[in-house]
Amino acid sequence: MAANDSTTSQRPAELDASKLVVTTLAKRKPLPPMESLVFGETKTDHMLIINYTPATGWSAPVIKPYGPLSLDPMSSCLQYSQNVFEGMKVYLGTNGEARLFRPNDNMARLARSAARLALPAFNPDELLALIKELIKLELRWIPKAPGCSLYIRPTIIGTRAALGAVPSDSACIFVIVTPAGPYFQGSKKGISLLAIGENIRLRPGGSGGHKLGLNYASGFLPQTLASKQGYDQVLWLLGKSEKVTEAGAMNLFFAVQRRDGDVDLITPPLDGTILPGITRACMLAFAEAHSTGKIVLPGVPASLKLHVHERPVTMGEIDVFSTQIGRILEVFGVGTAVIVVPITRIGWRGKDIVLPVHEGNGLGQIGHGMWQMMVDVQTGKTQFEDWSVVCD
Ligand SMILES: *Cc1c(COP(=O)(O)O)cnc(C)c1O
To answer: Which atom of ligand 1 is found nearest the CA of 335?
Structure first.
């Protein structure tokens, strides 16, 4: 009995949202003018922090005023890039309520990313409960203008304070939030991509299927080269056949006209080199629901069938499509940050493949229908599955 008791008390503590301790900022910061928001630069009042050590397990979660972290210089996150993150948003609903979008999927992906870097496991439901508490405290930071949201960045870093190149036995989860303006601002109608097959971001068998900080680090040099040549982002190609993968923090979709009048909606498969985007999964589900008559995508004829293909696409194929008049209807990137954004041109082998750009924000019928459907579900205007979760 006594022996049992002592084993129980020594077991490292699980992540437990009920142990939350909140210290609020005495004088809240003034809200910045929402017109001048630059993505990811505004710091709000509070942040959430939880620490893990092998001896004690997960500490009591703390919400406290936003501020710097204090880290030992030997910390494994600084030395060996044990950093994983998520990107999710909370939207103002049609009745002023705060709504998360498929948050359980973000938590599950974060848990998988942490496991990929051998970071300590945590209970995703408890973390989500804590994120909701943080959001309730930061509600006034959700911009009220249409298309705006509060971006949430849950992060886990390895904090083992020693130089041995071994898995980190210690970790810190922190969650910060930052207000985000609408992606479409001013006259910009989409983004251009430079297709790059060298110095590639991710290889088969690598870590591309997880949201790891290190996946981004090696992409920044090619990104600067692309910027110098006048392109917004890099389109990462894979292998001799130059398979299209993804661009920036976006999955890609190609809408191609079929001879029978329907549309093929093609996206590269989840082969481990591509991040399994939640927005990507939404596009696939919406296309399916539209084609079976379960929903009608706003502005898309109900009779138009969208045939989804998760299959490899090569640059050569895109090039051929683009030379056949009227064949490529739309190319768009999707992700939490942009929702849906049109791709205007792709630089490849010294030339530009120019893609159709449509009136208004540049999106075509399908891209716009997808975008509108996403916004409608995110704000609770339209219900689809149980994807929109009120934060209460
Ligand atoms: C986050 C991310 C995406 C988009 O994922 P969502 O879940 O749709 O936001 C796509 N590609 C990469 C590389 C990413 O990091």
So the answer is: 8
